[in-house]
Amino acid sequence: QVQLVESGGGSVQAGGSLRLSCAASGYTYCMAWFRQAPGKEREGVAIIDSDGNTNYAGSVKGRFTISRDNAKKILYLQMNSLKPEDTAAYYCAADRVAVWGCPLVASYYDDWGQGTQVTVSS
């Protein structure tokens, strides 16, 4: 089991930026960010594999950047041009074994962080 510890959440005004971090205790092939707002399903935000290949949800494409430092075992999510609709609890997730790459599907991932709240005010 990989332990994941998130940090970097907070409250910002619309148009601002935040960088989320997720430290992993061991090797991961797929790493991903999901978010969940009250009353809504958990939504995939972005994924990255161990080689740096990425995929983004359309709602964040061009504004968010997912990256990872494999040596430090840290996952990042740089969030720019934040909007009120980005307000949610953000979770990092990881999987050690990939069959067909890394999907933006929550059920695929076995290891999850505790979540960090991002609140964007207008």
Could you walk me through the main structural features you see in this protein, from its secondary elements to its overall organization?
The protein has 122 residues and is mainly beta. It contains no helices and eleven strands. The model has no long low-confidence stretch (mean pLDDT 95).
Notable traits:
122 residues, seven-stranded mixed beta sheet, 49% strand, mainly beta
Mean pLDDT over the residues: 95
Largest beta-sheet characterization? 7 strands, mixed
Order of helices and strands: EEEEEEEEEEE
Question: How many H/I helices?
Answer: 0
**What is the beta-strand fraction?**
over 45%
The number of distinct β-strands equals 11
Q: What overall form do the CA principal axes indicate?
A: globular
Report a brief summary of the structure.
With 122 residues, the protein is an all-beta fold.
List the helices and strands and how they pair.
Elements: E1 4-7, E2 10-13, E3 18-24, E4 30-36, E5 43-49, E6 54-56, E7 64-69, E8 74-79, E9 88-95, E10 111-112, E11 116-121
Parallel strand pairs: 2-11
Antiparallel strand pairs: 1-3, 3-8, 4-5, 4-9, 5-6, 7-8, 9-10, 9-11
